[in-house]
C-alpha cells in the first residue's frame, strides 16, 4: 500500500498535531492528510481538504471522534483522526 499526502505548502510540520489530540470544543485548521489513495479520496469527499476549519464535538479518549466541518458532523475512527494533521486555532 502506497502512502500519499495532501499538504498546505507553507505549513511547518512543527505547528501541526493529529486531530485525535484535540479535546471537545477545540478547533483546528487542516494542514495535511496522510494515508492511501482510497483514504484520501474518502476524506476529501467528506470535505476534509487543506485549509478547512474543523471543530471537535466529542473526543472521550476511546471510540470514535465526532467533528464538525462545512456545516456537517462526521464520526471518524481514531486511526483516521491520527492521519488528519491540524494547526490549533487560537
What would you note in describing this structure?
The longest helix is centred in the middle third of the chain and has 9 residues, at 37-45. The chain has one domain (4-88): Ferrous iron transport protein A (FeoA) (SH3 type barrels), CATH 2.30.30. Strands 1, 2, 3, 4, 5, 6 and 7 form a seven-stranded antiparallel sheet that branches. It has helices at residues 37-45, 78-82; strands at 4-7, 17-18, 27-35, 53-58, 65-69, 72-76, 84-88. The protein is built from two helices and seven strands, in the order E-E-E-H-E-E-E-H-E. Helix content is 16%, strand content 40%. The protein has 90 residues and is α+β, with helices and mostly antiparallel strands. The radius of gyration is 12 Å and the shape is globular.
Averaged pLDDT: 89
Distance between the termini: 36 Å
Please name the CATH topology. Answer: SH3 type barrels
The H-and-E topology, N to C, reads as EEEHEEEHE
Major β-sheet profile: 7 strands, antiparallel
Helix-strand makeup class: alpha+beta
Helix content: 10-25%
What labels describe this entry?
2 helices; 7-stranded antiparallel beta sheet; alpha+beta; 90 residues; SH3 type barrels; 7 strands
Quick structural overview:
With about 90 residues, the chain is α+β, with helices and mostly antiparallel strands. It has helices at about 35-45, 80; strands at about 5, 15-20, 25-35, 55-60, 65-70, 70-75, 85-90. Helices cover about 15% and strands about 40% of the residues.
Amino acid at each position: 500500500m502506497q502512502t500519499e499526502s495532501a499538504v498546505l505548502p507553507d505549513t511547518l510540520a512543527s505547528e501541526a498535531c493529529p486531530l485525535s489530540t484535540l479535546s471537545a470544543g477545540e478547533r483546528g485548521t487542516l494542514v495535511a492528510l496522510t494515508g492511501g489513495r482510497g483514504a484520501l479520496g474518502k476524506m476529501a469527499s467528506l470535505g476534509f481538504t487543506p485549509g478547512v476549519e474543523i471543530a471537535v464535538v466529542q473526543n472521550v479518549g476511546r471510540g470514535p471522534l465526532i467533528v464538525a466541518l462545512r456545516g456537517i458532523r462526521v464520526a471518524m475512527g481514531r486511526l483516521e483522526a491520527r492521519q488528519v494533521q491540524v494547526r490549533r486555532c487560537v
